[in-house]
Amino acid sequence: MALSDSWLKSNNGKQRDNVEEFADRESLSARISPRGKIVFQLRYRFNGKAKRLDIGTYPLVSLKDARGMAQKFRAELDQGRDPQQIKLRRDDDYNKQPTVKDICTEWFDKIAINKVSCKDDARAFEIHVYPKVGKRICDEVSLQEWSNLLFKIAEDAKTVSVKVLGNLKMIMRWGCIHGRLNNQPIQHIKAADLNVKKIVRSRFLTEQELFYVVHASLRSTNMSPKNKAIILMLLFYGCRVGELRLAKKSDFDFQKNIWHIPIENHKMGTRSRKSIVRPIIPEIKPFLKTIFSLSPNSCEYAFPSLKGQTYTMLAKGFQTTIPMHVDINIEKRFGVSIPKWSTHDLRRTMRTHISELAPPHICEIMLGHGLPQIWGTYDLNEYLEPQALAYSKWFAKLCAIIDNYERFDIKGCISSDSRNPFLSSQEATALIP
For residues 290 and 423, is the Cβ–Cβ distance under 8 A? Predict the structure, then answer.
């Protein structure tokens, strides 16, 4: 007699003296324990041996589903495959499926390890992602769950939510390519879906504002020499703050007169797989040597932070309050206020002002940008001489902008006869070999 839903329901949980077994059809049966637990089983023979395969427990698995699974296992048997081994392999495959934390950690450790922002991006996952879905099997997290999580992050930190989304897309794509994941629902979500609109900044400092910023910074008594030096470096080289934060003294070669930024120390490194090489012109060399002399030879970083008696690498985001202090000094010294600006705007300022001093492709190379498409693929010239010429012209222009005012050298010396805003004439003379 075939099993029925009503019979299973009436016998489920009903205690009995011994284990009992009731046949259904096509080798499916129900095994009932003394405590009334019902387990569906498939009886079959493989290689001449009788075998039983547990399919599922009633009522978690219905009679209809048990019959369907039994039919699939019989199809495997018909193909000469042992249903028991098929089930074991599927169970093993399921147990091997990575959790969200497993796949993300693997990607950060193996693939994104050389990204400048790797540590910060991984930290964002530790704070916002792992506590919510870190232990879940990644393939089982639905699109709706990802969407809800990202919206929650966006409520408090929109920029972070966009970065998390971007990294999740790369992680899932990588996981699918390498057989670690089966699907990537996150690809359907865009930053616009999180109601996050990217604001394209267009702020740059005019020559008048440059005069105010440089003069108020270098004459300030409440700014450290390190921060003053960073403002000048950002203005002169147009580099990224991160490139200065990670820069080591050994990156500056005063014999070859080049500043080498390793692949892992700049934003485009993982994409371009190229280092940035910038020339050190004679006008800037004494300034750099003075900067390095402010910290002991044992300190490897070019622009270190002093904590107690120890020199360490600058912390992420250290530069965010610099413009505020500069603006206060501008108000005190000149009685004027300028529109809000950030340290990154100094990079845009440099690029805007040098556009009239050098060809566009040289300007882009000076900023560490890659040349476009095929050009960048085949042209590997570092253009050091054209860069040096452009930097010399830019240096002269910066000096002219703040001309006729007292100059500041990085150790605090004021010289009224120097035409170099980066260093006093006396110190420059002493340092030039």
Answer: yes
